[in-house]
Design brief:
The protein has helices at 5-10, 12-22, 31-42, 73-79, 88-100, 110-115, 121-133, 164-186, 248-257, 263-274, 285-288, 299-305, and strands at residues 149-153, 205-208, 229-235, 242-245, 259-261, 281-283, 294-297, 310-311, 317-318, 328-330, 341-345, 354-356. The chain is an alpha+beta fold. It has an eight-stranded mixed beta sheet with strand order 4-7-10-2-1-3-11-12. A hairpin with a 5-residue loop joins strand 8 (310-311) and strand 9.
């Protein structure tokens, strides 16, 4: 599969990646002004923009800037940064930030609303083209790497895992019970509930190991909690077919093949994050577990699909939410094949870089 710029710009995470690449070279001329212009333009677009506190002896002199996509101030400031080079350091950091800022249980951030406007498309388009053409992003479209998989455990140890067959059966029952509870107890009231559409988290879950930088799961974490240490365990990937999610079309096909209705529990949260009202479904992972040994979400699949309302015809729509890029959920046991390693955030770096302890 080839990563196309238009596909990258169709997804909120892909657009955020492009913004972070533009703003990635700290200290470069114009970056600070562009970041400020984006911040002020995004502020009125956020549902909960917050409150400014102005500290000083003469606060009456402060006037909040009025910036909007219509006057193109933010677009113009970003447009002057087009010459930035897509380096490995900038791309890795931009991807990590774009993933970290994903939030599917609330309305989108003002920046994400801003990036979806027509005024921003010409600014982001050359950045998306540069990213798609970069050899540094080639692995983003690749399938699961069976030979180099590892789990990442946070600072809180995981409880002992049950067998995947048990986990999947329990998950399917829990989904049905949750749907019934929301449909009867809340009866359409706006109550926040489950927002993710992943297989059950009790399954083995891995990402590929990328040389000395470690597993992708160390840095590519949605809504991270600022972990500064982690345990990495190499695993042996189960042998067999793995379902590959490489874009919205594949996600829609999975939903149509084995649909699992989740309208009652997801109605409120998914309508907040996408703006769409109506019926919702997600793939029934318990059904897919009878056909494959796992399911893998490529980085390209994540950037082009996550957080969008994906149309699935008469069934309604769906949202890919809660996954990490390059993450694989295994429907079978994935045993460890080596000693666990301790990884920590390098305290001497300007960016959040992981290293072996």
């Amino acid at each position: 599969m080839t990563l196309h710029p238009d596909a990258l710009l169709a997804g909120p995470r892909g657009r955020r990646l492009c913004l972070e690449v533009l703003l990635g070279e700290k200290g470069r001329r114009g970056v600070e002004d562009a970041a400020a212009a984006v911040s002020w333009a995004a502020r009125p677009l956020a549902e909960n923009p917050g409150t400014f506190l102005v500290i000083g002896s003469d606060t009456s002199a402060f006037v909040e800037p009025q910036v909007s996509p219509a006057d193109a101030a933010a677009a113009a400031a970003l447009g002057r940064l087009r010459a930035t080079a897509v380096t490995g350091a900038v791309l890795d950091t931009a991807l990590a930030v774009a993933v970290d800022l994903a939030a599917y249980w609330q309305p989108p951030y003002g920046e994400d609303v801003l990036l979806a406007t027509d005024e921003m498309h010409p600014v982001l388009e050359p950045v998306a083209a540069a990213i798609a053409a970069s050899t540094l992003a080639e692995w983003w479209t690749s399938p699961v790497d069976h030979a180099a998989q590892a789990t990442v455990c946070s600072e809180t140890p995981r409880p002992p895992a049950a067998h995947p067959v048990v986990v999947l059966a329990r998950w399917r029952d829990d989904i049905a019970a949750e749907e019934h509870s929301f449909a009867t107890e809340f009866a359409g009231r706006d109550v926040s509930g489950t927002w993710w559409s992943t297989p059950p988290t009790g399954l083995p879950r891995t990402t590929r190991v990328r040389g000395t930088t470690g597993p992708a799961g160390l840095t590519l974490v949605e809504d991270s909690l600022g972990w500064e240490s982690a345990r990495v365990e190499p695993v042996r990937a189960p042998h067999g077919d793995v379902i590959e999610i490489d874009g919205p079309e594949t996600w829609a096909a999975l939903c149509r093949r084995h649909p699992l209705p989740v309208t009652a529990s997801r109605r409120y949260v998914w309508s907040m994050t996408t703006g769409r009202e109506g019926a919702w479904v997600q793939p029934d992972w318990a059904a897919f577990a009878r056909e494959a040994v796992g399911v893998h979400l490529s980085v390209a699949g994540y950037l082009t699909t996550a957080g969008r309302a994906i149309d699935v015809g008469d069934l309604g729509a769906s949202v890919l939410a809660g996954w990490g890029p390059d993450e694989t959920f295994w429907f079978e046991v994935a045993p460890t094949v080596g000693p666990a390693e301790s990884w920590v955030i390098d305290p001497h770096g300007d960016e959040r870089r992981w290293r072996r302890s």
